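User: I'll paste a sequence; please echo it back and then give the predicted structure.

Assistant: Echoing your sequence first, then the prediction.
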Amino acid sequence: VLDGSQNAIIAFDAVRNTTGQIVDFRYVLQNEANRQRVGRPDDVLLGRTMLEFFPDVATSGLLEKYARVVETGEPLRFELEFTYRGEPGWYDYAVLKRGDGMVMTVHDKTTERRNQVLETMLET
C-alpha cells in the first residue's frame, strides 16, 4: 500500500537529548515515491537522521514544528517552496504523530503551481 502511493511517505522516530527535548528525527521507513524523490535507497537513508540530510530544517523552524506534533499530538499541514538538488518546487506536507515520532506525507505540487503561474501570465 505504501509503495503504491504517488505521495512520498516517511516515518521518523524522535531523537531526544538527555533532558528529553527532541533534537532530531531518525528515518525508520520510506516508500518508493520518497526513494525516487530523494534518490536514496533504504540502506542509505534508514537509521540516519533528518538533519544529516536536511540541516536547514533546524534553522528554518521546521524541526520545532515537527517536535510540536510529537509532543502535542496535533497534526500539521502546510505548503512549502523548497529547492532540492538545485530544483525549486512546491510541496504539500502533512505530519501526524506516530508513537514517539511522526509520519509525514509529501505531495509534489510543483507542476500544478507552475501551471497556475502560466495561466495567470496568459490572463494578463
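The longest helix spans residues 110-123. The two ends are 43 Å apart (CA to CA).
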